[in-house]
Design goal:
151 residues, two-stranded antiparallel ribbon, 2 strands, transmembrane, DoxX family membrane protein, transmembrane helix, membrane, DoxX
């Protein structure tokens, strides 16, 4: 079973912060730890668009009224990838965090729709709405830390 994204975010951020405390000056702040943790989840999310079974599940997740689920999924994957790379570059991290935050908010209705329609992902039900909203809030909090915490 893959590591859930919230666990990955918190684990990578904690590891980055620990490395910053003991050996890597470039990671010596919670701002930097948040950047690295958020980059990890968005890189993983973007990589899912490359796996045919995952991509098909994501295409089914697009609300029925929207056109070309295949292009929407590919486009969001490209944006997630660009944002994750942007998070890793200190000069672009705040702008990347804002863009990823807006993308996360924009994709939330698709997550809610998938849960309400009872979609299965890899044979497992979509994340329930309450849990999904809590996860989205965690991702947005990490992105907010990138924007507002001091470097």
């Amino acid at each position: 079973m893959p590591v859930p994204l919230p666990v990955l975010l918190l684990g990578v951020a904690a590891l980055a912060r620990l490395l910053g405390l003991v050996a890597v000056p470039a990671l010596d702040s919670w701002h930097d730890a948040a950047r690295v943790g958020a980059a990890a989840i968005y890189l993983l999310a973007a990589s899912g668009r490359l796996i045919p079974r995952v991509r098909q599940d994501l295409e089914r997740m697009v609300p029925p009224g929207l056109p070309r689920p295949d292009l929407l999924v590919a486009g969001t994957g490209a944006l997630e990838l660009a944002g994750a790379v942007g998070l890793l570059v200190p000069a672009t991290a705040p702008a990347a965090a804002i863009c990823l935050g807006l993308l996360t908010i924009a994709m939330t209705p698709a997550n809610i729709s998938a849960a309400r329609r009872g979609l299965l992902f890899g044979g497992r039900p979509a994340t329930p709405v309450g849990r999904r909203l809590a996860e989205q809030a965690l991702y947005l909090a990490a992105l907010a830390a990138v924007v507002w915490l001091p470097f």
